[in-house]
Specification:
Layout (H helix, E strand, L loop, with lengths): L1 E6 L2 E6 L4 H18 L4 H16 L1 H20 L5 H23 L10 H16 L8 H8 L2 H4 L7 H9 L6 H35 L6 H31 L18 H7 L2 H12 L10 H17 L3 H23 L9 H23 L3 H12 L10 H15 L3 H10 L2 H19 L12
Antiparallel strand pairs: 1-2
């Protein structure tokens, strides 16, 4: 399975992490790494795997990213001994270099088809941290290049801390049985989330309603919006699970990116649970960098500016800007409300908690309508249809309702840890049977077609 992508050079086919080709590649990379590690050249094996993965996307990337990585490595090595002004200049050069990678994929008719945002974010994080004195430069280009181009994180994160990831290669040890089982569990879980929930919800109602919302009732539009909220969550968290499992197969721990985001009771808590590596990046490297924090208004305006820029990172469109402004304004309002209520405990009653969670979810849902719609007019049409309260459901299949109900249940009921423990404790034949059952279910429900991961295009 490949993802079709249009670049300036023509139609490209990008390998998907849900493809059989990727699974074969991952198995070969893991086996090669552990065999090479015994001979002291494990890092070379992973760097080779990273480059092979990049070549599979486009041969240009195998030269471009190592070259940028070498520039960042060289710059970071000079920063600690440089005068203050020169430190900032060097860090600025690195940031500009990596921002250019993002812009090359964001402009109309992009030169590069595969988004390099997640690579650029972690590369910028590295040089900024070194400039601030929060991290020491990595002393080996091999470890730096292997870490910053680590293939599980390239397409859609999570955004990693390069020095911490580089340090893990020094502490690498033999893969324990429990870690191997956890890796397989995460990869299987990611496949199930993607095919059995996310793609199913998209294909069976969400996509066609968002394409032409005026043709559907208010009830169908609302169900499609609910469906998209969970489609996006299971699509993105499914990718993250596959990335975490892939990294774990070579002994690397990547940071978690989701913690039941729709259980949040306010918008600030939502952003502590949703796309955690990105929201942390926005806070640490954009919001904190804005001037005027000691003024009375800038802490609030800074939130709006930060989220507006975060919205535009997804794409230069009014819809993404509106999405960012909605979240930024909500964050500012939440911060102001909490500052006015200092010393007042939040409601601990079941009704109060439920109301706060439901209110936060529907605020996020309003944002997702703009996020998903192709045009602002389309988003407004959907909101207008929903507000009309027409309750026909003739176009809603029973299967869609069942999968949506399962998606909601699995999100709010914390079964992940128990399921992982049960899988890891099962004998190998049982684990194999479970994974085969997932693959059979995917084949029965989804066939061989796979929609691209939503965040892979960002």
């Amino acid at each position: 399975m490949y993802i079709r992508a249009q670049g300036r050079g023509g139609l490209l086919f990008l390998m998907s992490v849900t493809s059989a080709e990727y699974l074969c590649f991952l198995l070969a990379a893991a086996l090669l790494y552990w065999a090479a590690r015994r001979r002291g050249v494990g890092l070379l094996a992973i760097l080779g795997a990273n480059c092979a993965f990049l070549v599979w996307q486009h041969p240009l990337y195998a030269f471009l990213l190592p070259a940028v990585a070498f520039a960042d490595f060289s710059i970071a090595r000079q920063i600690p001994e440089a005068p203050h002004r020169q430190k900032r200049f060097l860090a600025g050069v690195s940031v500009a270099l990596n921002l250019s990678l993002i812009l090359l994929t964001k402009v109309p008719h992009p030169i590069l088809a595969l988004s390099l945002s997640f690579y650029a974010f972690q590369a910028m994080t590295y040089t900024i941290d070194v400039c601030r004195g929060d991290a020491r430069p990595v002393d080996s280009f091999l470890r730096h290049a292997t870490s910053v181009t680590f293939f599980p994180t390239l397409l859609a994160g999570p955004i990693t801390n390069v020095p911490k990831l580089a340090a893990q290669w020094l502490k690498a040890r033999d893969l324990e049985e429990a870690e191997g089982s956890r890796a397989l569990f995460l990869i299987g879980l990611g496949f199930a989330k993607k095919f059995l929930i996310a793609d199913y919800l998209g294909e069976h109602l969400v996509n066609r309603v968002f394409d032409t919302p005026a043709l559907y009732s208010g009830g169908e539009n609302l169900l499609a919006a609910y469906g998209y909220a969970f489609q996006l969550y299971y699509d993105f968290s499914g990718y993250t699970d596959i990335a975490l499992g892939s990294a774990l197969l070579v002994g690397i721990q990547l940071p978690a990116n989701f913690q039941q985001p729709y259980a949040a009771r306010n918008i600030a808590e939502f952003w502590r649970r949703w796309h955690i590596s990105f929201s942390t990046w926005l806070r640490d490297y954009l919001y904190y960098a804005l001037p005027g924090k000691r003024t009375s208004y800038m802490p609030y305006l800074g939130l709006v500016i930060t989220m507006a820029l975060g919205g535009l990172w997804h794409g230069f469109s009014w819809n993404f800007l509106i999405w960012g402004l909605l979240h930024g304004t909500a964050l500012a309002a939440t911060r102001y409300w909490q500052s006015r209520r200092k010393g007042t405990a939040a409601s601990t009653s079941l009704l109060g908690r439920t109301a706060a969670t439901a209110g936060t979810f529907h605020l996020v849902l309003a944002g997702w309508i703009f996020f998903r719609s192709e045009t602002t007019a389309g988003a407004l049409t959907m909101l207008n249809q929903i507000s009309g309260f027409t309750m026909g459901f003739a176009n809603v299949e029973t299967g869609f309702l069942a999968v949506l109900a399962a998606a909601v249940l699995l999100h709010y009921v914390p079964l992940h840890a128990a399921a992982q423990k049960a899988f890891s404790g099962a004998p190998a034949p049982v684990q194999a049977a479970i994974l085969l059952a997932i693959l059979f279910s995917i084949h029965s429900v989804a066939g061989s077609a796979a929609a691209p991961f939503v965040y892979q295009k960002f």
